[in-house]
Amino acid sequence: MTQYRTHNCGELRLSDAGKNVTICGWFENIRKVSKNLGFVILRDFYGTTQVVIETEEMMAVVDELNKETTIQVVGNVRERSSKNTELATGEIEVVPEKINVLGKCRYNALPFEINQSKDADENMRLKYRYLDLRNPEVKSKIVLRSQIVAELRQRMTEHGFMEITTPILTASSPEGARDYLVPARNHPGKFYALPQAPQQFKQILMASGFDKYFQIAPCFRDEDARADRSPGEFYQLDMEMAFASQEDVFAVIEDVIPPVFAKYGVYNTASKAPFVRIPYLEAMDKYGSDKPDLRIDLVLQDATELLADCGFGPFEGNVVKAIVCDGFTGTRKQIDAMCAEVEMTTAQKAYWFRLDDNGDIVGGIAKFVQDKKEEVIAKLGLKPGDFVGLTAGKLLTAQKTAGVLRKLLGASCEKHMKKECYEFCWIVDFPMYEIGEESGELEFCHNPFSMPQGGMEALQTKDPLELLAYQYDLVVNGVELSSGAVRNHDPEIMVEAFKKVGLGEEDVKAKFPAMYNAFCYGAPPHAGIAPGVDRMIMLICGEDSIREIIPFPMNKNAMDVMMNAPAVVDQKQLDDVHIAIVPVEE
């Protein structure tokens, strides 16, 4: 009971019949039968209650109300003559003695119907997010988010982790994306940065003597939106352990995460420990992806030697990958659409042929394969009815293109995809370095703070592109939930690792002064990981868009259309922080 109400709109039951009650909520709708009979639906956070209008005087009050006005109803509970068994309060109704307006809706027309808000244009939903969130279906995702976060906190605490918050205003750090910069008023020309992750702080905590740290950490990255990535800010279950190895991190995550998926997820089955572990190079070779969807049982085969000299131009001098899919009965139109989607996603073409019921190779590039028919059937293990998808290019290109084709084939063929479950795996043994696609120079493949496998000796004696790191990704249903690593806690090894990408000891000291100096005072071996909370909840809810599970998300263009951000600020604000706006030249 509160000052405004004795019960909420999801609370009253048949046992409350005869009680005088006060309920509050939003005037959702009215079904008007006559001038003195109507049925009002009152909705609050907890549910809905039917209010019966039975007098002309009370109908006159209701007639003045626009939908979504907040009202207080004082009246008597009685048993409904026509019960609604699908509604928690469906056995009762409230006959009002008095209706008070608490918050008037001043608009006759709403931007969209509340209960159909998910059908509205996304920007319209985001502009009027406060109305969108009144939709019980939309609200339920935010409620579930709160429950999941609470469960994660509880489980981490039970494992002996201490929740510690780290700074939001910090220094710029190379984490792989653009920083959000904040000008420092008292330090002209200098800037804070919003943290892309609490990476350095959590490692410094380990050097400070804390044993197990976690937080539900806000992270800020100026990057483009995707269906599974929100622009601007996101949250992660950030954790770090001192005196810990890769195995220790795996043990914690495998105990914390799957039960949460199984308890709250749209699928009630999740992988149990230990998760499948797949080395990065094997994942690329077998699945064409470093985040494979293990619900799909299709695997890639190498057809380079088999088809390199078949006379088909795109195969000449390239790696060729094949995916054999039995049970795929797509029409030519469906196959063309699938190949077009591969090309749209990867900017690379996919090719195909089929072995028909008579054992003849038909369709797609069949004419280039005819002369090798028997060898192709034998090497690829084909049976009548099998569909063969093909990709070509340099090794990584052929693999990645085949990975997209594999995913599309799996989604199109029920025989090869076990949909209603959560399949987890670890991708391990990532390369320490790679050649950057844009720079053409040697770069860190993943986290620059990872420990190279083999330590100093490996750094000094091996080809950098052959070096592996103690880095790992947590993947579920083809979505990367997190990256983690055993950290490089030795300053000498750290300096040697950065030398490979053209940064010397002075550069390391300048870029990471606090962490470098902390490690020089004796740091413990430590390891950690940071599963994405938003992405995790998206998967648990079975949503395709991450914006559905964020209370106030930005749109695809990184704009908050409800608050009108980003926005122009006045000149005094710019002067205070020593900023001048330079017009962009056309």
TrEMBL record:
Q: Which InterPro entries does the record associate with it?
A: Aa-tRNA-synt_II, aa-tRNA-synth_II, aa-tRNA-synth_II/BPL/LPL, Asp-tRNA-ligase_1, Asp-tRNA-ligase_1_N, Asp/Asn-tRNA-synth_IIb, AspRS_core, GAD-like_sf
Q: Recite the lineage of the species.
A: Bacteria, Bacillati, Bacillota, Clostridia, Lachnospirales
Region listing for Aspartate, in residue ranges: 199-202
Protein purpose: Catalyzes the attachment of L-aspartate to tRNA(Asp) in a two-step reaction: L-aspartate is first activated by ATP to form Asp-AMP and then transferred to the acceptor end of tRNA(Asp).
* Reaction(s) catalysed by this chain's protein: tRNA(Asp) + L-aspartate + ATP = L-aspartyl-tRNA(Asp) + AMP + diphosphate
Gene this protein is translated from: aspS
The Aminoacyl-transfer RNA synthetases class-II family profile domain is annotated at 144-551
Q: Report the EC number(s), separated by commas if there are several.
A: 6.1.1.12
Q: Identify the domain of life.
A: Bacteria
Alphabetically sorted, this entry's keywords are: Aminoacyl-tRNA synthetase, ATP-binding, Cytoplasm, Ligase, Nucleotide-binding, Protein biosynthesis
How does the annotation summarize its subunit structure?
Answer: Homodimer.
Return the protein name.
Answer: Aspartate--tRNA ligase
| Species name | Agathobacter ruminis
Q: Which family does it belong to?
A: Belongs to the class-II aminoacyl-tRNA synthetase family. Type 1 subfamily.
> GO CC terms on record?
cytoplasm
Pfam families with a match to the protein in the record: GAD, tRNA-synt_2, tRNA_anti-codon
